[in-house]
Write the structure tokens for this entry.
Amino acid sequence: AIRLGLDLVRGLGYEAATRIVEARRGSPFADLADLAGRTGLGRRELEAVIQAGALDGWGISRRQLLWDLREALARRPAAPPLPLADRRERAADEPQFAALSAEARMHLTYAHTGIAAAGHLSALVARQMDQLGVSHSGDLVKQPHGVGIRVGGVVVARQTPPTAGGIAFLAIEDEEGLINIILPPEVVANYREALREQFLVIHGRVQRHGAAVSVVGDHLLPLVP
């Protein structure tokens, strides 16, 4: 298993994270009211914990936890929590929320932590890339010099060296590996807004220098998960 530290949760803060760590030393949190009561956290901080997936181990949908949060805050115990057997059962007429898809959970976790440990971020746009005929990084090494190609994924590095005459260099990553992208100055000028996006599809041509393989891009298309 991969554990993410609470300091990664956006909107939580060091003091709030420390409260959680200290409160759970005695015993695990039984439910939302227990968590709220023993930590004294407010709504926004608890929402951040839920959205980041820190409570997924309870087996309750994040949507359901967000719905239950108001009541949990209202009934947070002043005394030690009741045994699980004595806790209030959910009424039959209360809303029941379906579990989020794996992609939706990944997207939420990434949005609230900047990390998606449950899978590769490019999975969030995999369907769009397939529809656009994007080649995987593993296929790139098989392509001859000069052939047209379309690649895509998550932008993991951007560089515009002052000595490169306006050329930009990107590193994008899909589920199979990294792809080096070279963007001529005119392409950089035409796609300045797109270059800020997290997910990109790049159309261009394969450039080979010995064992090194890159793509010289001429068109960029941003993708929204």
